[in-house]
Specification:
230 residues; alpha+beta; Alpha-Beta Plaits; 2 domains; 4-stranded antiparallel sheet
Length: 230
């Protein structure tokens, strides 16, 4: 018989291998579909492969232990958890305007790998619940996070100035518009822009205002070449 069915889903056998691989395909695909739909660099195929690979690594470790009675059942899992960091780092980008993007995608890949390890060892309930929670965090909490950010009175701005003398002039004008400057950091201007000096400002609004209007107001100030929220 080529394929032997059994009700033992905790040990490594034909039935558990099939179920674990299919479950990792489905659960990894659910998370990857949401990430891909949001236009993230790591989408459907990446998350499925990460989950499948983690499941295979854990099953292989369990198979070695089950067949030969040697090896640490958690050794390969530990390597997967640390190794997935290299893949996650590839999704984190720092743009020309000093914006950091891809942290959530990197964390999602790491969580998906851990979910795959849970599937690979037969911890099915935890894997399914973690998939639901990962989707909750990336979808529902993302909306809540965006809502909270839009209501915050603290903003980080990237501003390019016409010259160094414009910095103090612009800072004074910002303060005159009921805006406190919490901190200012001089940085190298983004490549290809005409500004010869740039800064990252953390500001605090004294009253609730539309964030887009604040950025537009700063863009209109004399001495400002470019401004955006980061």
């Amino acid at each position: 018989m080529l394929f032997e069915f059994t009700t033992d889903l905790q040990s490594v056998n034909d039935t558990s291998i099939l179920i674990r691989l299919l479950l990792s395909l489905i659960l990894g695909g659910i998370i990857g579909f949401e990430r891909g739909k949001s236009g993230r660099p790591a989408g459907l195929r990446t998350h499925i492969l990460v989950c499948l690979g983690s499941t295979m690594a854990m099953m292989t470790n369990q198979y070695i232990y089950q067949q030969f009675g040697i090896s640490d059942p958690t050794r390969i899992a530990a390597q997967v958890i640390s190794g997935i960091g290299f893949l996650g780092a590839g999704t984190i980008l720092v743009t020309g305007k000093y914006q950091v993007k891809g942290l959530t995608t990197a964390a999602g890949l790491w969580a998906t790998a851990c979910m795959g390890l849970a599937i690979g060892i037969g911890f099915y309930k935890a894997a399914i619940m973690s998939c639901l929670l990962i989707c909750f965090v990336t979808v529902i909490l993302h909306r809540l996070d965006s809502s909270m950010l839009s209501k915050s009175k603290v903003m980080d701005l990237y501003i390019e100035f016409k010259d160094a003398h414009s910095i103090s002039m612009v800072a004074d004008e910002i303060k005159s518009n009921m805006i406190n400057i919490v901190s200012i950091e001089i940085v190298k201007p983004a490549y290809g822009n005409t500004g010869n000096v740039a800064a990252i400002l953390t500001i605090r609004l004294k009253k609730k205002r539309v964030r887009f209007d604040v950025v537009a107001k700063i863009c209109e100030m004399d001495g400002v070449e470019f401004a955006e929220e980061i």
